[in-house]
Structure formats: C-alpha cells, structure tokens
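EI: anyone free to look at a 139-residue chain?
SC: sure, send it
EI:
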Amino acid sequence: MRTLCGEDKITAEEIEFLKSKDCKIGLVIRDLTEIQVSTANGTLDAFRAVETAKELGVPQNVGIALFAEIKPEWSINHNWMISFAQTISENGYVPAFIGNTDSSKNFNFDRQCSHFVQATKDVDYFGAVFMYNRSSAFC
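SC: here you go
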C-alpha cells in the first residue's frame, strides 16, 4: 500500500505501472486529524481523497480501496465513518479503514467500527477494516 497524499505519495507513473501489471492498489489517506474523524460528517474528507485520487489517474470502479488511517490514540465517530464510506463508494472506490482494534489500547475505534458495521449492514459501504498494532507489521 502507498499513500494518496503527503511526502511519499504514489505518483501517476506508479499508478500507470501498477495498472499495466494488473496489480491491486490500496491507497492510504494519512493526512486526516483526530478533530476531523471525531466529527459527524466525513463527506468533505472523502471528496478531498476522491479528487486527489482522480488527479493522480487512479481508476474508478475497479475495486481500488482508499484507506482512512485512524491513529490508535484517536477517538472517531461512526457517523464520520458512514458519510466518509458513502462518499468514497459513490465515487467509484472501495472505502476502507486502518485502525487498531485492540480494545485494551483504545476501545473507541473498536466500538465505533462496530456501530459503523451495524449501521451499514444492509448497504454496500463496507470495504475493509485493516487492523494493526504498533508491535507488529500490517496483517
């Protein structure tokens, strides 16, 4: 996985190379803040990610995931997750989240993710929840 924005973001040339090799692409959104993800509306954050992906030439409607990275110490709002996922999905990408579900460290992500799954179980907004902890690599 590569980042969608920031210092080591993926380039348009890399996107083209990966597409030519029929590779799966997962892009991480690392410029979010706790203030943003703890609000009730993630629509603007999602539109910003979608526009960045389009500018880089990331193809739509081919199963490419845009992962919102949620830091382990952050609080998050499941309504932010729902509106973020809905906007990402409506724009041709797979909504996904990276977060630490180790409830002994921060129960908030685990609880809010559960609310998100329950609230979206009858719609196709759920992409993936990618879990990690600081002592291991991505799983």
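EI: The radius of gyration is 14 Å.
SC: 👍
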